[in-house]
Amino acid sequence: MSNPSPASPGTPVVLDVWCELQCPDCHAALTDLAALRARYGDRLEVRLRHFPLEKHRHAYDAAQAAEEAYQQGKGREYVEAVLGRTAELAERGQPLLLDVARELDLDAEEFDTALIDGRHLLIVDADQAEGKAIGVRGTPTYEIGGQLIDASKDSSGVRERIEKIADELSAGRHGDQSS
C-alpha cells in the first residue's frame, strides 16, 4: 500500500479496523478504540472493515447484520453489542443477531430479510478481498497512514503505535500551513 497523499487541514486521520464480530480479540480491542476516540474525537475517523474468518461460522452473518445496523443508523452500537457477546454468537448464531437488533430498537424483520437476501454480502466480500490484498491475515488488524498493524496475535502496545502514527499524520497536515 502506498503512502496516502497529504490531506487538507481539518480532514480526519483514517483508521481502518479489520474486524470480525465473532472474534474475542476484536472485543478486547474495543477498549483501545474507545480510548482513541476519546483522545482524538473527530480528528480520527475509525472505520470498521469486515474480515470474517472461516473458523467462525457466524462471522459472515454477523458482518451482514452489522451493515444492516449501519443502514438503520446504529452500526457502532450494534457492533459493540455483538462483540460483547462473542461466545453467545458462537452458540446461537442468527437468533442472537436478531435479538441484538431488537434490543437496540432496530427493525429485526429487516435484519432477517437482509440476511436471507444477502443484500450486504458485496460490502463484506469487498472488505475481505481488500484486506487480503493489503496483507490482513487475522483480526483485529489496523491500517493507518499506509501502515498495517496486526494485533491478532499480540495486542500489546498497539494503541501507542496507532497514536504515534496518528500524531505524525496530524502534525504533517497542520504543519503544512504557513502563518
**Counted beta strands:** 4
Distance between the termini: 33 Å
Backbone CA Rg:
17 Å
Ranges with pLDDT <50 over ≥5 residues?
1-7, 175-179
SS-based class: alpha+beta
Question: Which key terms come to mind for this protein?
Answer:
single chain; 179 residues; alpha+beta; four-stranded mixed beta sheet; 8 helices; 4 strands; globular; disordered N terminus; disordered C terminus
What does this entry look like structurally?
- The protein contains eight helices and four strands.
- By secondary structure, it is α+β, with helices and mostly antiparallel strands.
- α1 (24-40) links the parallel β1 and β2.
- α2 (59-71) packs antiparallel against α3 and α2 packs across α6 (108-117).
- The longest helix is centred in the C-terminal third of the chain and has 18 residues, at 158-175.
- The protein is globular, with a radius of gyration of 17 Å.
- It starts with 12 loop residues before the first strand and ends with a helix.
- Residues 1-7 and 175-179 have low confidence and may be disordered.
In short:
This protein is α+β, with helices and mostly antiparallel strands. It has 8 helices and 4 strands; from the N terminus they run E-H-E-H-H-H-H-H-H-E-E-H. Helix content is 55%, strand content 12%.
